[in-house]
Design goal:
Blueprint (H helix, E strand, L loop, with lengths): L21 H4 L2 H5 L11 H30 L3 H25 L4 H5 L14 H10 L14 H10 L5 H9 L16 H12 L5 H32 L11 H7 L6 H5 L5
Helix pairs in contact: 3-4, 3-6, 3-8, 4-10, 6-7, 8-10, 10-11
C-alpha cells in the first residue's frame, strides 16, 4: 500500500504558530467573513460573492489605471501597454462573473430581492472612479456618495486630474483641445484626424499606434462587460425597475451608447 504523501517530508512547514501563513498574508478571515446574507435564501450567497469579487477586481483595475496614467505622463510607454492589457483582462474576468450569476433564476432572485433595500450596482464608487479615470465624467452621479464624505472627496479629487484619455490626447498632439475635467468626453474632429495620421503611418508613430490599440482593446472588453450586465439583468428581472430606483434594463441599455474613446472608434471610418 502506498504511503500517503506528507508535504513535511518535502521540507514544507506545517506549524505556523508565530509565523505568517497563507491566510494571514491574504487576510482571509475578514474577506471570507464579509459575505453575510440578509435572508435564508440559498442564492443570496452567490449574489453577494459575485458582487464582492467584482469590487476586488475593480480595485485592481484602479491600481493599474492610476499607474498607467502616471507612466504615460512620464512618457514611459512600455509599462502603460502592459497595464492596459491587464485591465482589459480584468474586465474579461468580470465578464465571466456574469456567467455564474446567470445560473440564478428569476424565482431564486425574488426570494431575497427585498432584502437588498435600495442598494444597487450603480452606487459602486469604484465603478464610478474607473469611468472618471477613463474620461466618462458624469458629475451628477457624485450625489449618490454625498452620505459618504470620504468617497465623495475621492471622486472630487479625480475630477481635478486629467483622465487617462486626456493624457493620451496630449501625447498625440499637445496643441489639441483638452477634454473638460468635469464632463464626459465628446468626439472632436481634430482629435480624430490626429489619430488618423497615426493609423495611416504606424511605423512612424508606433508608440501612439500601440497606445491607441490598447485603449480600444480595453474599451472593447468594457463594452462586453456592460452588455453582459444588461442581458443578465433582463434574464433575471425582466423590465422591472432596479432596486436603486433606475428603470433597470432601459437604463443599462442607455449606458451601452456611451463611448469612452469616441475618436478611436470613429477614425476607422476614415481609413
Amino acid at each position: 500500500m502506498t504511503k500517503p504523501e506528507n508535504p513535511e517530508d518535502d521540507g514544507a512547514r506545517m506549524s505556523f504558530d508565530g509565523a505568517m501563513s497563507y491566510g494571514d498574508y491574504l487576510a482571509l478571515d475578514p474577506i471570507l467573513g464579509a459575505a453575510q446574507p440578509k435572508s435564508r435564501a440559498h442564492d443570496e450567497m452567490l449574489f453577494i460573492i459575485q458582487h464582492q469579487t467584482s469590487e476586488l477586481w475593480m480595485r485592481l483595475a484602479l491600481h493599474e489605471l492610476n499607474a498607467a496614467r502616471e507612466a504615460l505622463m512620464a512618457d514611459d510607454f512600455p509599462p502603460v501597454f502592459k497595464m492596459l492589457t491587464r485591465v482589459a483582462r480584468i474586465f474579461e474576468q468580470l465578464n465571466g462573473a456574469w456567467d455564474v450569476l446567470r445560473t440564478m433564476t428569476p424565482s431564486e432572485y425574488t426570494a431575497f430581492r427585498e432584502d437588498l433595500g435600495e442598494s444597487s450596482g450603480f452606487q459602486s464608487h469604484q465603478y464610478r472612479l474607473i469611468e472618471y479615470i477613463l474620461g466618462n465624467r458624469n458629475t451628477a452621479m457624485m450625489r449618490v456618495h454625498e452620505h459618504r464624505p470620504a468617497l465623495h472627496a475621492m471622486l472630487a479629487a479625480e475630477l481635478t486630474r486629467p483622465s487617462l484619455y486626456a493624457v493620451a490626447i496630449a501625447k498625440l498632439d499637445s496643441e489639441l483641445p483638452r477634454p473638460a475635467l468635469d464632463a464626459p468626453h465628446k468626439p472632436v474632429p481634430a482629435i480624430e484626424d490626429a489619430w488618423a495620421r497615426v493609423y495611416r503611418d504606424p511605423a512612424a508613430h508606433w508608440s501612439l499606434y500601440e497606445l491607441a490599440e490598447k485603449l480600444v482593446d480595453l474599451e472593447d472588453y468594457f463594452r462586453r462587460w456592460r452588455f453582459n450586465h444588461v442581458t443578465t439583468v433582463e434574464r433575471i428581472i425582466g423590465f422591472k425597475r432596479g432596486t436603486g430606483g433606475t428603470s433597470g434594463v432601459q437604463y443599462l441599455r442607455r449606458m451601452l451608447e456611451v463611448e469612452l474613446f469616441p475618436e478611436l472608434w470613429n477614425v476607422r471610418g476614415q481609413l
